[in-house]
Amino acid sequence: MVWLIIKLPSLLMRVALDEIVYVKADGNYCDLVLINGRCRKMTFQLHYFEKKFEELKKTDTFIRVGRSLIVNKQYVEVIDLIDQTIFFGGKHLQRVPTAEDLRPRTTEGNPVNHDIYTVKVSRDALKLLKEQLEQQKHP
Q1: Sign of the dihedral defined by the CA atoms of residues 129, 63, 118, 90, in that order
Q2: pTM
Q3: In a 10 Å sphere around its CB, with 0-12 CB exposed, 13-18 middle and 19+ buried, how is residue 20 labelled?
Q4: Where are the alpha helices (DSSP H) in the chain?
Q5: Using alpha carbons only, how large is the chain's radius of gyration in Å?
Q6: How far apart are the C-alpha atoms of 52 and 116, rounded to whole Å?
Q7: Quick check: helix, strand or coil at residue 87?
Q8: What's the rounded Cα separation, in Å, for the pair 125 and 115?
Q9: Which backbone phi and psi does 49 adopt, to 5 degrees?
Q10: Which residue among 53, 64, 77, 136 is buried most deeply as judged by most CB within 10 Å?
């Protein structure tokens, strides 16, 4: 198993690479989203993670999508160009219940999508990701 190791003066964090679903930029920070549904706010910009993935020789697994997102391509399930959304899936992804899930449901109205594994991305970035995944050879 390959680990991403993040060292700070007061923190040492180890994350198995195959547990990272995506990394999304949020200003000078990044959200690191894991397969168990946890989201870790990191005090790094996206290029820090891009460099780490290059050092670990995992650029075939992690793909930069536009200016604000790096995805683990093994979890990309659907690329919707019309809705400009990536849906992540896979048997290992778990969904953490939200407060909304605990409220009583009514039959009125449309169901709300509580999927934590969706990300909005620009159409051009999605087109490039789609092309890269289409060119990928499958065993």
Answers
A1: positive
A2: 0.81
A3: buried
A4: 46-55, 99-102, 123-135
A5: 16
A6: 25
A7: strand
A8: 21
A9: -70, -40
A10: 53
